Amino acid sequence: MIRLPILLVASAAALSAAVAAAQSTPKTDTSRGELLYSTHCIGCHTSQVHWRDKRLAIDWTSLTAQVRRWQANTGLGWSDEEIVEVTRHLNALYYHFQPPRREADVRRDRTIVAGGR
Ligand code: HEC
């Protein structure tokens, strides 16, 4: 009869080890954009920057322009693809703008962005 509590303790320990293992499993759905943003950008601004009354990002194009501007400001030299990934991440998180659907829109965005600041 003294064996039962020991068994219970042992199985409880095994269970909590399993739970801990499950919790420490790295998230696999972290997007590249999220990773880039949290590594390089989040240090400076909280989410409040993206909720300001007079925010600079008013649609997909201007949001892309801001991301491009900030990665340039911080000397990161991101590729177009990386800029789009981070734009997508911020858009999903805060802005919810309509992303460009056609290639022509993307090209137009690039032109505007290149001509912007
Ligand atoms: C040196 C600090 C700093 C760093 C680093 C920084 N930001 Fe910012 N960011 C700001 C400040 C301050 C503002 C608001 C004022 C402004 O736009 O000039 C801002 C504004 C923005 C906005 C516009 C928000 C809005 O809707 O008005 C975007 C988008 C943005 N940052 C993205 C980024 C991204 C992407 C990075 C990483 C590549 C980044 N920022 C890195 C300080 C920073």
Total number of beta strands? 0
> What is the helix/strand order?
HHHHH
Task: Please give the count of helices.
Answer: 5
Shape: globular
Give the termini separation: 78 Å
Q: Report the helical percentage.
A: 55-70%
Task: Please state the average pLDDT score.
Answer: 77
The fraction of residues in strands falls at under 5%
Number of domains: 1
For the CA atoms, what is the radius of gyration? Answer: 22 Å
Largest sheet: none
What compounds sit in this structure?
heme C
Structure characteristics:
about 120 residues; mainly alpha; 5 helices; globular; binds heme C
Write the layout of secondary structure elements.
Elements: H1 3-24, H2 32-40, H3 60-73, H4 80-95, H5 103-115
Helix pairs in contact: 2-4, 3-4, 3-5
Residues 37, 40-41, 44-45, 49-50, 52, 55-57, 63, 66-67, 70-71, 74, 76, 86, 90 line the site of heme C.
Q: What does this molecule look like?
A:
- The protein is mostly helical and 117 residues long.
- The chain has one domain.
- The protein contains five helices and no strands.
- Helix 3 packs across helix 4.
- The model has no long low-confidence stretch (mean pLDDT 77).
- Heme C binds at residues 37, 40-41, 44-45, 49-50, 52, 55-57, 63, 66-67, 70-71, 74, 76, 86, 90.
